[in-house]
Amino acid sequence: MSSRIKKAILTIAAVVAVLFITEGLLRLTTPPEFLQSSPRSTVWPWVVTDPILGWANSAGFENNNFRINSQGFRGEEINPVKPTGTIRIVCIGDSGTFGVWFGARARRNWDSYPEELGTILKQHGYGNLEVINAGVVGYTSAHTLRQLMTKVLKLEPDIIIARTGFNDIAHLGNEFFRAYYIKEPPGFIIGSLMYRWPESRLVRLAAWLDRKLVSKSVAGDKNVVSHEEFGANLERIIEASEKRGIDLLFVDYPLRDSETGLNRQEMYLTNYYGVETLAEFHEKHGGYQEILSDTARDHGVDIVDTAGAMKKFAGSSYSEYDFVHPNASGTRIVAYEVYIALEKLGWLKDR
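RESULT FIELD:
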């Protein structure tokens, strides 16, 4: 063996040793939530910034309306290890999954379709089913994918229900979305490290530094997630589910009819999404919904048609103060349509 090869081996060994020692010291001196910040918003006080996920629910948060369990999911505590005989359903997505909608004077309501779905399943005698609400306010498909790869898959779900896409149309000119912008890790090695060891302090530090650098370089005249990236994120969600034998179901994401227009309370959203009218929201969002339909069709994944069910509903499915999130009636419609889809697909039977 030449001296050059010996020197290279020793150098690599030294670097690896330093990394292991550094990782060990950081684990001894820092919590698992290393580089996770305190809540920055008085509007969403349960949301914390996170180097891997961009932001996340704050584990252990609780108020009079809901609680975040120790794993960062809305709801009661769950066993990290799936109980024997349990069919575990995990709902992933943004605020439309987490469960919040606005009434008059910006009053928040907390109805969530995962909770309604759990109630419906119990009413129909499915005592062996567990519904987990993994929704996080503000998530794009990129955030949802990263959460799936680093947190959700560890729960060993039998069924994943994904409702995502609205925040993908947000404008990178907005400071918040630009600061916490994330996308698929570049390259196989980096992606493998992040997805396999998201709790590693060095991986979290690298992700934090990467996001800081990327947020300064992204162009402010683009959507947070492009059409191409949205399609790729959906395909990665499909791929990850298929690889593990998980049944995947998409849910569409309709908005309130454009004829109603935006009221004064809703106008603040134009700063986040770079559009001025509800019709423009529909047009911009519609492009992403078409990609969802095309991607699902190409891969044989079913989509729950909640838009059609809401149009047939005699009452109002949306608040006049919130064109994005269904109201209590609309939330029940989403949950019921998901339940009907699960029944038709035969996924609720004992496995």
